[in-house]
Amino acid sequence: MLMNLEFYILHSTFCILTDNLQPHNLQPLKSLMPDNKVFTPEMTADGSFTFFCSEIGESYHSRQGAIEEAQVKFVKPCQLAQKAQQPVLRLLDICYGLGYNTAAALGEIWTQNPHCHVQLVALELDSTVPQAAIAQGWLNHFRDPIPQLLEALATTGLVETEQFQAQLYLGDARETIQQVQQGNFQADAIFLDPFSPPNCPQLWTLEFIQHLAQCCSDTGRLATYSCAAAVRIALITAGFTIGSTIEVGNRQPGTIASFTEANLPSLSIREQEHLQTRAAVPYRDPNLSDSASGILHRRRLEQQNSLLEPTSHWKKRWLRVDS
Predict the structure, then answer these.
(1) What is the DSSP-derived secondary structure letter of residue 202?
(2) Which of 67, 173, 266, 297 is buried deepest, with most CB atoms within 10 A?
(3) Is 251 helix (H, G, I), strand (E, B) or coil?
(4) Using one digit for the tens of pLDDT, what is the confidence trace for 281-311?
(5) How many DSSP H helices and E strands does the chain contain?
């Protein structure tokens, strides 16, 4: 029973309790994935930890602050503080990873309304990373029962309590999203958090984003850290209206999308012009089955034949404006 409990993040959202999380106690993790990617723990600027994937060449979260990124790029743009007043709130977490985005969301929702019932669908390729984050205690700065709930989710893939119902789908998100869609799940908030488009184009394609749009409620919001023109055009083509989110550290702004324009931050003139360049040629994967190299090759060919302005011209023009 989860009755009469207060849920909040201890000592503000970004204050991380790291007494038992010293870097010298952490060892690289070998994934259960067939290619045995190695994940190396890293401390970020706000004191929280993330993993660095050496094969991909990217961290799971911003080194400027993993928890800060979860809040600024996902929780706040999706207006979860306001939506928490609903009796039921539905979350769709794409590339669940360490679980930070979901943990931060639960912390915000239950701080605002301890009685809100949260339904979560999370997609992740492999259970190794969320299990390792739990084992290292990286979610322990969130008040109970968030760590316990997410530990159960990472371990069993399914959690159901009075206030929390969650399912973790493992495998290629291009396949599992179709299962979610067939179940008529309608999310109030979607977190789109794969590795970057050049390294993981499979989850940034027009076709994949169209499936996400089918899983978003009429009043729902989709948030992502990416501001890539190709991603933004795919969102627009899928029926979303888009806006910018604020930067985290040295990272560029993210993107927030919804089916209405209400309260969306406007794109700058520079960002609007970026959508008119060849950078805006979307990634495509017609059958949701192509390799990363195949998707990238298809896009390069389309860019070469595009009548859109070369992106280099746009960059030079704005360099002159900035100088």
Answers:
(1) G
(2) 67
(3) coil
(4) 999 999 999 999 999 999 999 999 999 999 9
(5) 11, 12
Q: What domains, with CATH codes, occur in the chain?
A: 65-267 (3.40.50.150)
CA pair distance 146, 37, nearest whole angstrom: 28
Residues 171-202: b if buried by 16+ CB within 10 A, e if exposed = eebbebbeebeeeebbbbbbbbbbbebeebbb
Q: E strands along 7-106, which residues?
A: 29-30, 38-43, 49-53, 58-59, 88-94
Which pair of structure tokens corresponds to residue 181? 């869609």
- What angle, 0 to 180 degrees and rounded to 10, lies between the N-to-C axes of helices 100-112 and 146-156? 140
Q: Tell me the C-alpha distance between 150 and 293, whole Å.
A: 34
What's the Rg (C-alpha) of the chain? 19
Distance of CA 262 to the CA centre of its chain: 22
Distances in Å between the alpha carbon of 158 and those of 14, 84, 142?
Answer: 28, 22, 20
| Average confidence score pLDDT of the chain | 87
Alpha-carbon separation of residue 311 from 42, 98, 197, 280 (angstroms): 34, 34, 17, 9
How much is the pLDDT for 47?
86
Cα–chain center distance at 117? 21
Tracing tokens 């806006």 back to the chain, one arrives at 243
Could you tell me where the DSSP H helices lie in the chain? 66-69, 80-83, 100-112, 128-135, 146-156, 173-182, 206-214, 229-237, 269-274, 292-304, 311-322
